[in-house]
Specification:
Radius of gyration of chain A: 20 Å
Strand content of chain A: 15-25%
Structural class of chain A: alpha/beta
Helix content of chain A: 40-55%
Oligomer: homodimer
Order of helices and strands of chain A: HEHHEHEHEEEHEHEEH
Mean pLDDT of chain A: 96
DNA sequence: ACGTGTGAATTAGTTCACAGCT
DNA sequence: AGCTGTGAACTAATTCACACGT
């Protein structure tokens, strides 16, 4: 069981560990160790052991980790034994790319519905889904008990939509809009901001020095 | 001038500050202060002052910051006074969305060329650009002195393409593929992994507790 | 003998609190 | 009087190094 509350930064690395374990499974490997995982992820072996120790002891003394067992444990810790229904708000180019992306399904998430407020987009089919009017947002969230949303709307609309998502019961928002959302403390927001990442890189590229 | 080498985590926040200053300019504001910036970004005022102090003193004692001046200083620090040409590799759904995204242009970046290795995609027009055969990658990078690339190819191709980018002179890679790239230390890589972010959120949503 | 799991040591990052400048 | 800029204090994160179990 959980010993002490794991720091957020540790939780954030667990998906990387899970991804590597899935890869090792795909390669047919049955055991690994913290050294190998660290080498392949660019993380120190000590950090991997320490991170895992927040959630329990998953290794065999002297023998490393059983790949499938550790993979299953990480899935359990991250609550990925279930498939999470996710609503996608915004059916622009980004919404299209996200809706067609196959990686979500294989990782514990299923796009349950796509919404847009643009009448010319409503009714269109993207992947398996018909774009619905955003007016139906609350209804769908409640009917399907959706807890996680992906926000792919323009910046000016993001807060308004986020408020509605939260009011309807959503507890996690993956936000692609370049704004800081105001949400209550029980709601977790993650931001994806490629412009900020490019600007961060430009600092080092422009300095010509070592990429810290 | 730069005092001590700024930590990477500090550099990573500068784009957020810049974004907020751009917003304040758009709102017609001429001055601000660390308290206001912090409130709007969800960051402590002390942290903002400390972060800026790595690069110099930009405020007026007792009077906060001149919005435009600080904005310009951040642009200079991040090397955004120039427009960076960027190559985009991968013309799938994600490549489409990135190529059509307007936010890059207004933030210091310009997509100089789009590449794909799929003959059925080469020659297609996306936004302003014709998709080129990836065979021309090195030639274009060298001719246009491209230092930054966006990698939107499948995971299995990412390392190979990254190696070619680096060999051709690219010093910063924004990687959308779910792999850890092996690059020399002078190359900066930033990863965008929505699946990992969703899994990170699932931990908290599944725990039902406070979103750390 | 081996690699985990973990307190201890170290290093990094954040916040405090106030001197200093306008 | 007010808000910045910053050393000092504090907190968080990482790495060390070794006891431990198989």
């Amino acid at each position: 069981m959980t010993k002490r509350k794991a720091p957020d930064i540790v939780v954030g690395r667990l998906p990387l560990y899970l991804r590597m374990l899935n890869q090792l499974v795909a390669e047919g490997r049955s055991t690994t160790n913290s050294q190998e995982l660290g080498d392949r992820l660019g993380i120190s072996a000590a950090q991997i052991r320490k991170d895992l120790s927040y959630f329990g002891g998953f290794g065999k003394y002297g023998a490393g980790y059983d790949v499938m067992y550790l993979r299953d444990q990480l899935r359990r810790i991250l609550h990925l034994e279930q498939t999470w229904p996710v609503v996608l708000v915004g059916a622009g180019d980004l919404g299209h790319a996200l809706a067609n992306y196959r990686g979500f399904t294989t990782s514990g998430f299923d796009i349950a519905a796509i919404f847009d407020n643009d009448a010319t987009k409503v009714g269109a089919t993207i992947g398996q889904h018909e774009v619905q009017d955003v007016a139906r947002l609350e209804k769908v969230i409640q009917e399907q008990d959706v807890k996680i949303a992906i926000l792919a709307v323009p910046a000016h609309a993001a807060q308004t939509v986020a408020d509605r998502l939260v009011a309807a019961g959503v507890r996690g928002i993956l936000c692609y809009a370049p704004v800081i959302l105001k949400v209550p403390p029980e709601v977790k927001v993650q931001y994806i901001d490629p412009v900020a990442r490019l600007q961060h890189m430009a600092y080092y590229v422009g300095n010509g020095g070592d990429a810290a």
